[in-house]
## 1
Amino acid sequence: MIITDDINNLIIDDIKDFDLEEVLECGQCFHFTKLDDKHYELLSFGKYLEVSQEANQLILYNTSIDDFEKIWKSYFDLDRDYGSIKNEILNLDSRLNDAICAKPGIRILKQDFFETLISFIISQNKQIPHIKQIVHTISEKYGTEHILPSGRKVYSFPTVEQLSLVSEEELRACKVGFRAPYIKCAVDMVVSGEISEEKLITMSVSQARETLMTIKGVGEKVANCVLLFGLGFTDTFPVDVWMKRIMEYMYFDKPQDKKAIEAFAMEKYGDLAGYAQQYLFFYGRENGLGK
DNA sequence: GACCAGGGTAACT
DNA sequence: AGTTACCATGGT
């Protein structure tokens, strides 16, 4: 991987198995905006990033090498060989071929733990466009402001300290509805240090999952999403309404329990379950599989 | 105006 | 221990 410093833009050459649009639009993250055909902007870890892709080049605008090394390289999971991951998944089950070939540039992002936790608490029983809207609203109201060279203002998702100053009523005003007390509980447990990324990543997956589920409003599915997208545990298989439909369509002849589907998938895909899940989710949802 | 959404909880059998 | 109503709110 070659990094060239062209004024303040970083050009990452030779990226493989990576498609910026697929990575961002596959339903794992909510705090980004499509600027035009090629350009996206996103905020994560308190930083603003404009990014685009031209063939096998990824271009990060106005970014330091330091930020790339510390944040964006792991955020985009650039050090991982997705070619072998896809091959290994196909060896486990060749029936994922259509899903993988449809979106061969998917990656599992390593997002900010706290933002991922709150975002997926918000996600319950909501459609993706609405989740995005709420994440943007909360960021504008309570996050840190960034003034771009153009003069336009954008906002990071609030830190846990910033969000700890926000009342349940103010959260409700952001249209989170019945999830307001859930968010409050999560914020309290993180700001007190009772739950932290540092502790969670030293645990086994099941230990970390159980710990996350002590937060009121965090069940199996939300916990699995946080493990996968915010903590780097790839051996987990979030089952939402879509994954339930897709798995039933692909593997079963009658409706299944979500727990049963998760257990079946863990048995089948093992350590690669998280990756398999994302290929299936995006493919199944775009094609309305099982609806 | 129903019905559904990257669900979870509490109150039921 | 396994179901089921209910939770706010916007999209379809």
## 2
Amino acid sequence: MVEETASAALTLKDIAREAGVSLATVDRVLHNRPGVRPDTVRRVQETIARNAFQPHVAAAELARGRARRFAFVMPTGANPFMLQIQAYLGEMSAWLSARRLAVEMVITDVFDPSVLAASLEELAGSEYDGVAVVALDHPSVRAAINDIVDRGIKVVTLVSDVPSSRRHHYVGIDNIAAGRTAGALVGRLVGQRSGKIAIIAGSQGLRDHAERIFGFNQVMASEFSHLDILPLLEGRDEDDRSQQLISRLLGKHPDIIGLYNVGAGTQGVATALTEAGRDKQIVFIAHDLTAMTRRLLLQGTLDVAISQNPGHEARAAVRVLLSLARNEPILSEQEKIRIDILMRDNLP
Amino acid sequence: MVEETASAALTLKDIAREAGVSLATVDRVLHNRPGVRPDTVRRVQETIARNAFQPHVAAAELARGRARRFAFVMPTGANPFMLQIQAYLGEMSAWLSARRLAVEMVITDVFDPSVLAASLEELAGSEYDGVAVVALDHPSVRAAINDIVDRGIKVVTLVSDVPSSRRHHYVGIDNIAAGRTAGALVGRLVGQRSGKIAIIAGSQGLRDHAERIFGFNQVMASEFSHLDILPLLEGRDEDDRSQQLISRLLGKHPDIIGLYNVGAGTQGVATALTEAGRDKQIVFIAHDLTAMTRRLLLQGTLDVAISQNPGHEARAAVRVLLSLARNEPILSEQEKIRIDILMRDNLP
DNA sequence: CTCAAAATGAGTTGCGCACCTCAAAACGCC
DNA sequence: GGCGTTTTGAGGTGCGCAACTCATTTTGAG
């Protein structure tokens, strides 16, 4: 029992013949070039639709000649998650060059709106076909993104979104949902016990951290109101500072049963927990899968790591930019980034 | 600060010149065609490697002429998970036809080794470039797969593997790890409580079910030995039968605190739980994300759904077959199927 | 050295499309 | 009806490679 799923192999010539026009006109319609009567445009488009015609991507790509260039605007510094994204882009290099795609890194201080905006404005005047940017949500950044879009360059925001801009796509997770997931897990894993829940973030000023905290508190308030949430600590994503803050907190509150680390500095938090000898009694949830969090999961110090797959984000950003540049539909289901719940037994 | 990641745009002609041979010889080397001295082969390959040369896939695809044909051997019946995979393949139809790829469904009884083997043998003599098969692990199936491979057709096993065959790739999850994940979650979510844990499967004869049960028991024995595991029930993946079995079990054991459904029939199990009024007290874990399990998660009847992403499996199978057919390297990190832990707050 | 077999060079064709030019036809306006 | 403008047709070129043919050179065995 065999079923057909794919169709014939029409070419532009067939479409031209069937629509009663020349190849040149079909080409004009296909690329929105001027000089075609609206009536004729419609006739050609109908013929294309009627036959479910798809231009042969390989032929189109070959005929284009020049390679496509994409820029990835990434933060300076040693943020492991960002470095992982860059590493996965590196792993794609054979894949990219076989398709004559060039991906270039633009490293800049994405946390300073004016610096980021300036970097983006520079790209607006360049020869890039697409830009992926880890964007801070700020009016001047938004304006810079819109400028790039107006130049006909495709833009996707990566990891961190600027929803008010006219960017074509966002590749990343819903951080409110991530925070809610953390809250639900803490609440469920502490079980019947009652006690206090600690929460530490890098800074409330970071949009993704703020969103996670919001989601976390939402769930705690609505579903686990019997638990006592301690005031938020800010560890600035640094191991040392996080360790000190948590050590002091553990000393002050012997009845902490759950701990959520919103940002980085997980190693510091874990050290504080083990030094206090309370890593097994306290439910500890953090973000991102690194060599370090993997180790902590296997040891049992960390109970759950909530993560977004950096490899998936890197590849999705490239694919989305490519599809946009080709005016191809995007497989949205494929490009959606999931909130991964990682425990010891489902580590990839 | 800009860093280059991709390289030049050499062509075969450049390679030929640099290696001091003709285009024809490079072509022979590239496609393992006979008639080239080993010494020359080496020289050409070294030139290719030295320049990190990648043939332009678009040009290669275009020059090939004929389209590639892939067959998907899928089970008969209304298994929702399998239907989802087929649905996602359908969603790819525009993507496929733009690449002149034809994907055809071969629906057969994959649970009968002789029927499946016969279907596969038929494919061995056909014009397919690749075959994806939901394979039962049985000697005659293994032999059939090896036959197909010997014909030069690429084979990937889908969802269910035949590790002893010479299939080129497996697209699916590690079911032992999935079972262990279920065990860890049941154990963690019941918390301090003590009581009995129920487990129901379709049949122990199904390899994936058996593996999940194995993993589940492994974790329960080593980490949650204080919990009492009830004997396995077999619901044949049917809602009615599962409901009856669970209803009876709930009547007999008032102290059940956890329940793991290994296979299908989740609706039946859920009905039994709610009718007994114990859906909130019992930790309930099942597999796969469907409209039904999504509803149960939102209601709170189901606590966790463990799933493998059917869309990802469909696309990965196609991509892997395509890469194999093109003799391209596979992005293994991309094609790996993860064990997803889905709760109410991280539903996609 | 001779001869057949193996290895190689040189060349052609065509895949389907993008992108271009130039001439011809159709059109709208006065 | 004449005019300029818009629309269309016809055609060409080349992208990089696969796949082929056929002539020529090199090689090794006897």
